[in-house]
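Researcher: I'm comparing several assemblies side by side, and this is the next one on my list. It has 1189 residues spread over three chains. Same procedure as the others: predict the full complex and return the structure.
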Amino acid sequence: MNGCWLLAATTDSSSAWAELGSKLSGTEGRAIIGWALAVLALWLIGPNSSHSRKIAGAVFGVLGLGVFWSFVPAMSFLPAESVFLLLAGLTIFAAVATISARSPVYSAIWFACSLLGTAGLFLFQGAQFLGIATIAVYAGAIVVTFLFVLMLAQPEGHAFFDRVSWGKSPRAVIPVVTMAIVSLIAYQFGKSDIRNHVKAEELVARTVTELGGSDAAVRKVVHHQDGDVTVVEVDVVASEAALSKLEDSKAELQRSIGERIPDWSKCVVDFQTNTDVRTADHVAHLGGQLFGANLIGVEVAGCLLMMALVGALVVAGLDEEKKPGATAR
Amino acid sequence: MSDNLIILIPFFPLLAAILIAILGPKLLKENSHYVTVLAFAASFFCSLMLFFSVQGQVVEEGTSFESVTTLWTWAAVDNAMIDADGHSVPFLIDVTLRSDALTSIMLCMVTFIATLVAIFGAGYMHGDRGYWRFFAYVSLFVFSMTMLVSVSNFLLLFVFWEAVGLCSYLLIGFWYHKPEASAAGKKAFLVNRVGDFGFALAIFLIWINYGTLNFHDYVVDGQVIIPGVFGQMRLGGALPYVQGGMATAICLLLMLGACGKSAQFPLHVWLPDAMEGPTPVSALIHAATMVTAGVYMVTRCTPLFHASPDAQVTVACIGGFTALLAGLIALTQHDLKRVLAYSTVSQLGYMFLALGTGSLAGIVAGMFHLFTHAFFKALLFLGSGSVMHAMGNVIDMRRFGGLRHLMPWTFRTFLVGCLALAGIFPFAGFWSKDAILASVHDRAYPGAHAHDSGHDADHDADEHATHSVALLSADHAGSNQPNAYTNIYVWLYRSACFTAFLTAFYTFRAFFLTFYGPQVIPDEAGHHAHESPPMMWIPLAILAVFAFLIGFVSELDHKFAHLLTSTPSLAFAGMQDTMQPGGFHMDIAISSTIIAVLGIALAAFLYLGHQREVEAISKLKLVAPLRALSLNKFYLDEIYTWAIVKPLEYLGIIYFWLDRWLVDGLVNLVGKLPVVLGSGLRNLQTGLLPFYSLSMVVAMVILLFLGQVLWGGG
Amino acid sequence: MSETALLQNYLLVGSILFGLGLTGFLIRRNLIVMFLCAEMMLQGVSLSLIAWGRYHNDWSGQMLVIFIITVAACEAGIALALVLALCRKSGSLDIVNWQNVREEGRMPYIDQEVPAEAVESEVWPTLTPAGIEPATDQQELYRSNV
């Protein structure tokens, strides 16, 4: 068997390699490679790993992230791209550090860092209130509570159970399972007709900017197939004048999309106007939503907080003082 | 009015049964008999009224009379069958009650005996734990029996046929804690199943051949929609009866059913064992009423049997043989009730013999014997119950004797019963037995009594008889009754005469053993050894009066025969044309009386005083094996045990093991599967929380992956 | 800038955050760290929700995240109280201490061997020595302040 395989490999090596290469660079192949790299990285970066292993793990991790990122389209606007990558990198690095820190105190601090990254990502999305709330509530309150509890519970410092995992080989098995989720989601992106869509989106955006100037902005572009005709629905924020200009140049836009994107040779563009979530008085709108449509939810959440407060008091056991030395084990 | 009456007659016992069943255990208890006796008496009163009403109608309307009351439609299926002509036949079961001569006679007899038995039973069962239960069962039985004789449909007949079987089973096993009683109940039930199987097949065949199960014509607006099996259309000759092999098959299957219920050979074995039940039950169910259901049914189906001479001769042979066999067995039994039980089997055999003659005279004689037999056999059984009551439930004749001074009323009434059973003039049994012998004689020696008959007719100046005499001279060719079986009837006649002798002998043997000789009382009797209370002997006395008179009264002016022949089943051209009704033959009467007296004399010679002769005879080399044969009931029970019961038992054992190991094994295997799986999965319950969460996540990933693969994501 | 590209990038970050949180939750044994990891998973979900909300031009995403934060706060309160109670009972934050609810007859999980702590380069920061060591007055050192 091996001989045969070797023979085949030697006689037709070039085509075999090409085939292998195309397979590996295909969607499935990349998904599997990314998966394997991520698993390897997480396996190497354990709480009790040596520095060299951690560095190797970090390298594999970066490679894996790169592979995963190859599934999603780039944002094509370099400043935005770099800010996003910075924030995402911070978040992910801090997250990895959280789960691999040997000391729980470090874990908590790294988690706070990760939260900062997340808050930045929120801000990047235009969710200003949530970004600040995350920092205030999570990093400010919850993480500090964690640290308090840590101080209360674990005064003796490094514990053995922070170095090892449970069971026989969960450190090898668990990353396989969890990274499979990530890989599956990334694979979904890779499979879809996303690049054409992004290309069209950019074309539309460019056209709109050229024609409408500061009066018009593209909110969103969606497309769907209607037979062999691709319908591109463009959601724009534009003044009346800009919109009529855009309507006039529709045929031109359709033609250029058809030229640039071979799969969308027959294409119909449809402009729609809409209001934007990212309005200037964002927080006011958010508050309106929160205390308007979601008022009952807010009330319920308030009740929940109240009950949680009482519950926490009961569970923590104020009367525990009466039973000193209550150690079960 | 007769519509209401025919509904009320079964209604009262049913009401009593339900009342006692509901109120008996807590409320009525020792007073349950009031309800039953009142209900039976009311029922009897209604029956009498119905009887007179029917009699009046018969006088008005001439030879044939019936009145059908439809209560409700039980089942109706359109297009149930396509008959030979291509018409679709509906399956229509109406709950219908009929009143005609046959039914009204049966109803009177059943309710009268039931009333007396209930009164007797109130004394007999006094202090029993299941007092109310007894009366609930008896009431249910009387309801079923009255329904059985009054329904006008084969299916309903079958239903109540089973219902009386059920009551019989319940009452035989009344003392269910006694192993013999419960075994006897089971035996009765199982043996009856064989017969019922035949009956059910017969009903299927009737449905296939006649397209209806109704006795009467189904009439809408004076138009006959579905001609009934015994409807006026068929009886009038407008539609034919099935002939040939099919007719024989139907009749033989019906006869099988009748054999089961009426304890005829080879299914007679359950009746003697049924004596384990309370004695009033033996009197009511196993002597007077239920066991005659077979006779009733065959009488009702006379037109069917008329179509098949082969079946008729089979009926006669079975009857004659059973009568002889049971008589022989009864000779040596020590148990008073068993002697009476075998006597019942024997007398039922007589009835079937009479029915098997196929002549109107024979059928009337059979029914007449059924009628008189009910009185004197109930009397005898109740008398034996009285003896049993006094003797502390001892019924073995070797353990008591000479009771005539101790129990004068029982003695007197029992004597009347014995004389009636033996057939001594002028007791009831004499008239009916003579009628049977006469009818068989007519069949065996056709034409021998032509003169007598004519004489009879002159004597009676009865238009009916005149009619039959006129028809007697008519050509026989039109009938399908060849005289091919004459030889058989000759032998049957001889055997019947011999059976009459046996009957007289064993009856008086039992009588002498019980009431004559030195007074012997078993220890069990205790302080009970005295005459029964009036509540018990008064019914005996009433029955004795009837056993004395009923035959004589009925025979006056051929009243009974005249009434009975107005039943539609008996009043049809083929029957009326060919056969004369029973005539009174002086020569046969005298010879049979002489035979009976001879039997009594022999019994007196052997069993009065010292029984040296009996011992001497039993020791004879020739007699000893015969005696053993009779004592052991011709080893029939043993033969059945070895031929049927044991093989079935072994088969049952095989099936039991098959069920145990194969079927249960498979089932247990299915049951073991989860256990085995579980013992593997059990190890997953580690108690480690992270492990549980990991399992959850693994499952989630698998689902995600499957979603991806199967539905291409989404 | 393409909205779709933005959405997909965010979803990927969200899913990675979720996956890392899950990994940590399953691997780590420290109750508090596990809990932190659970919070991290919530963060991943929050990111996805915000991204979808923006993509669909809808407030619901942000509303949901607000409620997530609220519930997370409640959860943190109760869970930390629980952790504290558990810790008092067993004397440590190890989740493996709590495997009493297991199938009867099954042996509990016990660590076979605990690896030694990986050697860290414990180099403490040092200051360059400077100046002259001051003379210490022993009596001054031990004098009572009262």
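Model: For your comparison table: Residues 1-9 of chain A have pLDDT under 50 and may be disordered.
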